[in-house]
Amino acid sequence: MSRALLSKLQREDIFACAQCGYCVNWCPIYDRSGWESTSPRGKVFLLKRMLDRNGPDVFTSNPRMASEFVQRLFDCTTCGRCTEKCHLEINLLDLWVKLREISVRARLAPQSVAVIEKTLLGPKNVFGMDSAARRDWATYTGAEIKTREQARVVFFVGCVTSYSGRSQGVAQAITAILNHVGEDWSMMDDEWCCGHPLAVSGATEAYRHIAEHNVRIIEKMGAETLVSGCPGCCLAFREEYPRILDRKPGFEVIHFAQLLDRYVSEGKIDIPKLQAKVTYHDPCELGRLGGVTEEPRRVLTSFVENFIEPEESGRIGRCCGAGGLLKATNVTLSGDLADKRLSMLNNTGAEIITSACPSCEQNLGEALSKRPDSTRIQDLAEVVAQQMGLM
Fold first, then answer.
1. What is the pTM of this model?
2. CATH level 3 topology of 120-261
3. Which fold has domain 271-387?
4. For the segment 258-278, what is each residue's pLDDT rounded down to a tens digit?
5. Residue 308 forms beta bridges with which residues?
6. Is there a contact between 139 and 133 (Cβ–Cβ < 8 Å)?
7. How confident is the model over 119-159, as pLDDT tens digits?
8. Yes or no: is domain 3-109 CATH 1.10.1060?
């Protein structure tokens, strides 16, 4: 597809890259694969070679090189550490996402991307399951849910938390805490996938339709705040929807960790002390890309007696391999990243590993299931709700 789809700044940034390699050691993919072509520097080098051909189409000037380049684009978790560490402040993450979009339009993306798009646009969830089953998690967990025409707070559950049995306890915990504080809240009557998988896959053409649907319903409910336990959903509503819709939705968008932080600071919840050793894994889309790093730590340290900070945390938190659709395009590599991150978290000696992302909890949980380990992995909301005796 035409190089014109790249912005002027992106085209300039590609050739501004000094190939210094500072990003290389911060790339979790390169760390596990060892291939230079998987590193940010390696991808920019390949891209320069293709752009130097002066053809109108980036991916047809050298088909063999383009095939390898597209594979490397999708062997990426879009975690953003390369952007965070770039000395020239090049937004490499935006570049990778735009190039994925170009590869989709050129029909060069992995087949799994087309499958994801089809399943999401049909039943409006990434699992391709019956949309009528979106609330079955409440039946399975016994959660007391609310669906009203008007509410101050809307709880956007998200696909992973709704459909994946491993993560349904997150939704149960969130609803239990909302009910406990007497929050004026409701779920949506017709929740669709947030659409974020379309953004990271490059299959963006139908994204506007999804954004319009979700925003229209929430604004009609008169909501002041949308809260979700999924960082990807929060990123979609807060960052992607305004670009797609050319306007900012008429409500605040926050992650549940931020709402928990408010409840703690306002004295709305009292969490009994927890004696166990606890550590926290920063989800990339919440910490680095969302800027939410202190709130979950304030919540944890308010009741955890022995909180231990892991290596590579906060804005430089190491990716667990769950993001960027890597589990769909390269499940082996995704699992390898999870195993590496789990080892770093286990090095803290923690008895409980917490996070604030259902996808992170799943990927790390799968890695943990292969080890004879007594450590448990739980979402922050689950730890809080259990400590309060709400579940």
1. 0.95
2. Rossmann fold (3.40.50)
3. Rossmann fold (3.40.50)
4. 999 999 999 999 999 999 999
5. 279
6. no
7. 999 999 999 999 999 999 999 999 999 999 999 999 999 99
8. yes
